[in-house]
Amino acid sequence: MNIDQPLALLGGISAHEFMQIYWQRKPLLIRRAIPNFKPSLSIANIRELVTREEVESRLIRHDEDGWHMETGPFEELPPASQPNWTALAQSVDLHDDATAALMRQFRFIADARLDDAMISIASDGGGVGPHFDSYDVFLLQAHGRRHWRISQQKDLSLVPELPLKILRNFQAEEEFILEPGDMLYLPPHVAHDGIALGDCMTISIGFRSPTLATLARGLMDAASDQLAAASGDGYGLYSDPPLPMPDLQARYTDPGAGATRTPAALPENLVQKTLDALNAVRFDEALASRFLGVWLTELPANSWFDIAEDPVDLHDPELPAGRLALDRCTRMMYRGEELYINGEVAPCPAGRSLRLLADEREIKVGSAAFQDLDEDALDMLNAWLDDGWLQFHPL
Ligand code: SIN
Ligand code: CO
To answer: Which of 19, 102, 155, 182 could form a disulfide with 178 if both were Cys (CB 3.0 to 4.6 A apart)?
Structure first.
């Protein structure tokens, strides 16, 4: 992607400028971000999607008794003629190629930050109420119109004891009516309320931002996995293959420990040796990237791969012209020589061609990058084809 090229998607500024001026900083309204936008899924398709077990969904209604929320799957949603409801389907990118492709227009932001594409449908008056999110979001109007009101207010206190987050004191500062193809970018913690004006569909491209505590705990889990592997206690999620770790198999010793008059007191030497043992563990960049690469590419439970019935063999000299493309559910990242895919460390190093596959999500058969793949890499790609992680599309 050319990050310096002005994009209609970002209102005529480049991805580079957007990231400098708006990302995580201030809202941006973009008229005709996608001119003549036609959603790949209709309202009827979303009504069908929320009946499925594998699709995470919610129904939110409000009436004179207040706010109500139910979680799916739903046998049936209320009729369009009934006002004030909205149904939200999470991670539609896992279930629909065109929605996944739409989400990937936002890959000027690292995959590590991109989360999912949620699609909401609403009847007149429907919405999730005034609230704020902890994540950045692009709200693309897909069908019908929605009245958005936003505020950068400091008071983010919530109405207590509700099934969803509703701001106690929402004071709109700006408002817009979005038409199909218009888009609103909101950084985290900007208060917002979007109310459907008639039948409405909105696509939210959302981002993930783990808490620092989650990152620290993940790193410690990864270190713990590595120590278990180093002591022969089998392999964990992060230790296949294991990274260098100190040998901590030596046992605690205390020669010269004096006789004690207070046997219940913890020995200070034991406390110190415990800290020394932890200080010997290597919390380094290799461990951090191993944890992040494996964790961020882990598949959500509702990912599903279609297994190719008759997969091609990439060693075949008669291989027809075509391209190899990652399945919409596949997650692939790299750092340095290490390559991560769908929650695993790939068996081959992240060479130029494999990094290109991760960045472009496809590679042309016969291209220079394809020809650079060695036998091991072709074996690995063959295995991914067998598993449906990668697909061959003939020209
Ligand atoms: C929506 O109603 O589709 C958007 C939800 C949100 O405001 O986060
Ligand atoms: Co929101």
So the answer is: 182
Distance 27 CA to ligand 2 centre (A): 13
The CATH architecture annotation of domain 6-207 reads: Sandwich (2.60)
Helix ranges (H only) for 2-73 are: 15-21, 43-49
* Gap between the Cα atoms of 125 and 43, Å rounded: 16
* C-beta 90 within 6 A of ligand 1: no
pLDDT above 90: residue 244: no
Contact between residue 330 and residue 341 where contact means Cβ atoms under 8 Å apart: yes
- Region of 224 on the Ramachandran plot (φ > 0 left; ψ -120 to 50 alpha; else beta): alpha
What band does 309 get if pLDDT is binned at 50, 70 and 90?
A: confident
Break the chain into its structural domains and give their ranges: 6-207, 212-252+268-296, 322-394
Place of tokens 């063959």: 382
Atom of ligand 1 nearest to the CA of 120: 3
Distances (CA, A) of 337 to 135, 216, 218, 345, 361: 30, 23, 21, 11, 18
Q: How confident is the model at residue 295 (pLDDT cuts 50, 70, 90)?
A: very high
pTM of full prediction above 0.85: yes
Distance in angstroms (rounded) separating the CA atoms of residues 95 and 113: 20
- Length of the chain equals 395
CB 126 near ligand 1, within 6 Å: no
Q: How far is CA 149 from CA 155, 171, 223, 381, in A?
A: 16, 9, 46, 48
How far away, in angstroms, is 192 Cα from ligand 2 center?
A: 6
Q: Could you read off the pLDDT of 79-110 as tens digits, one per residue?
A: 999 999 999 999 999 999 999 999 999 999 99
What CATH number is given for 322-394 in this structure?
3.40.366.30
Contact predicate 144/198, CB 8 Å: yes
Q: 275 Cβ partners below 8 Å, 6+ apart?
A: none
Confidence check: pLDDT of 193 > 80: yes
Please provide the DSSP assignment of 166-207 as one string.
Answer: -BSS----EEEEE-TT-EEEE-TT-EEEEEEEEEEEEEEEEE
